[in-house]
Amino acid sequence: MLPDPGDREPAPEPLRLVQAFVNTVDVENGIEELADPGCLHDVLIRIGALDPGAPQLSQADLSRALAVREALRNLLHVNVGLAADHAALDLLDRTGSTGGLSVRFGRDGTSRLTADGSTLDGALGRILAVAYTAMVAGDWTRLKACPRDVCGWIFYDRSRNSSSRWCAMSVCGNRTKTKRFRAQAVAR
User: Fold this and answer.
1) 129-148 burial code (b ≥16 CB/10 A, e <16)
2) pLDDT in tens, 31-66
3) What phi, psi does 6 have (nearest 5°)?
4) I need a labelling partner for 124 at 20 to 30 A (CA). Which of 9, 46, 71, 74 fits?
5) Alpha helices of 10-119 — where are they, by DSSP H?
6) Minimal CA–CA distance to 72: which of 116, 11, 3?
7) What's the pTM?
């Protein structure tokens, strides 16, 4: 698993599942954890989305998982003030429909949204169930995608007023502000 920039603590469980899935690519450094169907299979098991012993995945499964990952990244950009892409939202809707989501009630009277993690559809459904549950609980807005054009890293905002914008101010924030300052200086 790739380390979080700026020495940030990862998101708490169960949001860590969404963060771990979306952060399987380091855009800036060109590191892709989901390089082939076998890697996808192993990562989904490691993060707890796919059941151990699930059948191997195909190239089509990999393509679908990568598309869902990027749709989730787009959705997380909304948490830093960027607009959602309607095609990404449609893909997440379709993924939720095929994800086998169901409500389960615990002996203690609580409920949870679950999915069968024995297939890719179920694994993606589990990830979306965590996203939905976090939205209902009010925790979703703390999980954010860094808005720097070459980053997009998913980080958990632990600031008191939930005002963090960058995965690491020392890297992405400073680089973006320096770039903006230089562009303004040239324009003068």
Assistant:
1) bbbebbeeeebbebbbbbbb
2) 999 999 999 999 999 999 999 999 999 999 999 999
3) 65, 20
4) 9
5) 15-22, 37-47, 59-77, 86-98
6) 11
7) 0.89
Rounded Cα–Cα distance for residues 22 and 127 (Å): 10
CA 10 to chain centre: 12
Question: Which token pair is 28?
Answer: 């800036």
Residue with tokens 């708490």: 12
Q: Which band of pLDDT confidence, cut at 50, 70 and 90, is reported for residue 149?
A: confident
Measured in degrees and rounded to the nearest 5, phi and psi for residue 35 equal -75, -25
**DSSP symbol at 29:** T
The CA distance from 6 to 170, in Å, is 7
> Please, are residues 146 and 153 in contact by the beta-carbon 8 Å criterion?
yes
